[in-house]
Amino acid sequence: MGKTDPIKRAHELRENLIWENELMVVDFSDTLQGKDTSRVIDTMPNVATGEYVFRAKVNVKELDKMASAEYGKEFFDVTQHTNTEIEAFTRKQEFDFPLWYKHQPDFKMKNILDYNPPFIFQVAGCNFHDGSIGGGCSYCFVDNKSNDGVVSPGKAFLTGHDTIESMLSAREKIKTAYKEAGQDMHIRVLRASGGEPTLALDWILDMWREIGNRGLDFVGQIDSNLSTGMLVDEFERTGVYEPHTLEKLAEFPIKILTAIKGVDPHNLQENVQSYTDIAIQEHSIKKFLNAGFDIFPQMYNPDPATLRPYLEHMDDVIENFSQRIHIGPLKAYGPTIARIGESEIEAKKEEWDSNYKNGCEILDTHLRKRYGVGYKEVTRSDVPLKILKK
After folding, report:
1. Are 126 and 195 contacting, i.e. CB atoms less than 8 angstroms apart?
2. What's the CA gap between 190 and 115, in Å, rounded?
3. What is the tally of structural domains in the chain?
4. Most Cβ neighbours (<10 Å): which of 199, 233, 287, 332?
5. What is the full per-residue pLDDT of the chain (390 aa) written as tens digits?
6. Containing domain of residue 328, as a range?
C-alpha cells in the first residue's frame, strides 16, 4: 500500500528545507495551484525579493462580495444579518475557518471577513511525498514539484521577517481593493501550509516571536498531516528544536488544522501512499492538545465501513472529539488532475463523492446518538476537548 516511510522522508526533507534563517517555500508563479487559487486575490510577492511565494484562499465564498460573483455563489451580506445568523451560516459551510477565532478577544462577528482569506506560505516538502510524479496523497491539490523538497526552480527561500513585512504590505493592497468593491476587510490570518509545516517549527516559532514582540494583530494557522508527533519529540531531544517548542508556539493565537487522512490503517495508507499509522496519527493529535493548542480536525476520504468505530474510539480517548470534525469534499483541482490523469479522475471522483456523502451521514448519526446534536449544528470553537486516556 504505502510507498514512503514518512519519518525517514522527513529527515531527508529537513536537510533542504532550512538554510540558516531561511525556509524553502513554494513559488506559485508557474504552478497549477497558483492558477486555481488566485481567481479573487492574486498571488503576492515577497517584498524583499519579488518572488510570488504567498497566496490567499477565500474560505467562505458567500461572505465575500468578489468571490461570490467569481464563483457564482449567492452573496451573504453580513451587514444585513444578526451575529447569530452570521455564525449559523458560516459553520454550515465547507470551510468554517473564520469561526475558529470566535473566542479571540477582539473578534467581532460583523468583522468575520477579516478571518476569511488567510495569507498563506507553503513549506516546499511533504513527508508523504517520495519525490516521484505521482507521490503523496492521491487527491492532493498541491503540484508535485511543490512537495518534492528539492532545491529547484519553483522554490524560494524566505525569512520570517520578510513574511511579516510581505503580509503587512499585502493587507493594505487587499484592503484597498475590497474597499473599492464595497467591503471592509483587514486580513488577520497568517497560515503555514504545505507540504508539512511541522518540519520547520523552529523557523515558525522565531517568526511568531517577532510578531509578538512587534505587537502585531496577526492570528495564525498551522497545518499538519499528523505523521510527525514522534519526530517533534526526537527533534527536541536532539536539539534540532528547542525544548517545549509546541508549548511555546501555543502561547500565540495559532490554531492547528489537523488533517485526518484515514480512519483505519488501509484507508490511511491508501490515501497518503505512505507507511504511516493510525496510532501515529492519534499520538500527533494528543501532542498538539497536550501542548495547549486549539485543534480543528479536517477529515478526508474516510472509509464508511470503518468510520463509525473510529469515531467511537476517538470520543472514548478525547472527549467531544467528533464534534470538532469536518469532512472535506475532494475536488479535481489542476494539480490533482495532473497527478491522476484525465482518464482516471472520473472513477476517483465517484469514490471520493460517495465516501464524502456517506461519511457525513455516518458522522451526523454518531453525533446525534452520542451528543444529541447534528453535524455542523454546533460551532467547533465552542466545543471543549479533553484527553481522557493517555
Report:
1. yes
2. 10
3. 1
4. 199
5. 458 999 999 999 999 999 999 999 999 998 888 887 888 899 999 999 999 999 999 999 999 999 999 999 999 999 999 999 999 999 999 999 999 999 999 999 999 999 999 999 999 999 999 988 888 898 888 888 899 999 999 999 999 999 999 999 999 999 999 999 999 999 999 999 999 999 999 999 999 999 999 999 999 999 999 999 999 999 999 999 999 999 999 999 999 999 999 999 999 999 999 999 999 999 999 999 999 999 999 999 999 999 999 999 999 999 999 999 999 999 888 888 888 888 888 889 999 999 999 999 999 999 999 999 999 999 999 999 999 966
6. 6-387
Please state whether the predicted TM-score (pTM) of the whole model is above 0.85.
Answer: yes
Q: 220 has which bridge partners?
A: 190, 254
CATH number where 301 lies: 3.20.20.70
Distance CA 168, CA 122 (A): 18
Question: Cell triple for residue 17?
Answer: 528545507
In a domain, 40, yes or no: yes
Residue 128 lies in a domain: yes
Residue that has been written with the C-alpha cell 453535524 in this structure: 375
Q: How far apart are CA 52 and CA 65, in angstroms?
A: 25
3-state SS of the chain is: CCCECHHHHHHHHHHHHEECCEEEEECCCCCHHHHHHCCCCCCECCCCCCCCCEEECCCCHHHCHHHHHHHCCCCCCHHHCCHHHHHHHHHCCCCCHHHHHCCCCCCCHHHHHHHCCCEEEEECECCCCCCCCCCCCCCCCCCHHHHECCCCCCEEEEEHHHHHHHHHHHHHHHHHHHHHCCCCCCCCEEEEECCCHHHHHHHHHHHHHHHHHCCCCCEEEEEECCCCHHHHHHHHHHCCCCCCHHHHHCCCCEEEEEEECCCCHHHHHHHHCECCCHHHHHHHHHHHHHHCCEEEEEEECCCHHHHHHHHHHHHHHEECHHHHCEEECCCCCHHHHHHHCHHHHHHHHHHHHHHHHHHHHHHHHHHHHHHCCCCCCCCHHHCCCEECCC
